[in-house]
Amino acid sequence: MAVESFNSFIFKSEDDNVKNCFKDVQQQHRQNINNLASYIQDIGGQPQENLGMKGKMAEIKLNMKLGAKVDAARIIEKAIEGETKGVNMAEKVLRGNLDDKSRDIAGEILKNDRNSIEKLKELM
């Protein structure tokens, strides 16, 4: 869902510095997705490739909240909010019953998301 959210953030941003930061964060999410999907396939699973109904509804809700024209601070605020939710979910995963490799991957995603939050906060 993060990749799609950042598509909206990039589209609605007018400041090139903000857009570039959003693109960097989005690229990190894509890398996280690729790493996770590869691991799931390596252990014999099949990764989900779509947002699902919940993800689509969240995307629609985000676009409605942002509206047609919104200032950079509001967009950055929403991006930080979304990243924080991602960190919270990764922390829950890490508290679960994981094998060492799964724990390493979830920990790396958590670290990346925390770094993304710091990058976004620097824009404020």
Low-confidence stretches: none
Please, what is the oligomeric state? single chain
Number of helices: 5
What is the β-strand count? 0
Q: Beta-strand level of the residues, as a percent range?
A: under 5%
CATH fold title = Ferritin
Structural class: mainly alpha
Shape: elongated
The mean pLDDT is 85
Q: What's the N-to-C terminus distance?
A: 23 Å
CATH class: Mainly Alpha
What count of domains describes the coordinates? 1
- Rounded to the nearest angstrom, the radius of gyration is 15 Å
Order of helices and strands: HHHHH
Biggest sheet architecture? none
Helix share of residues?
A: over 70%
* CATH architecture label: Up-down Bundle
List its salient traits.
Ferritin, about 120 residues, mainly alpha
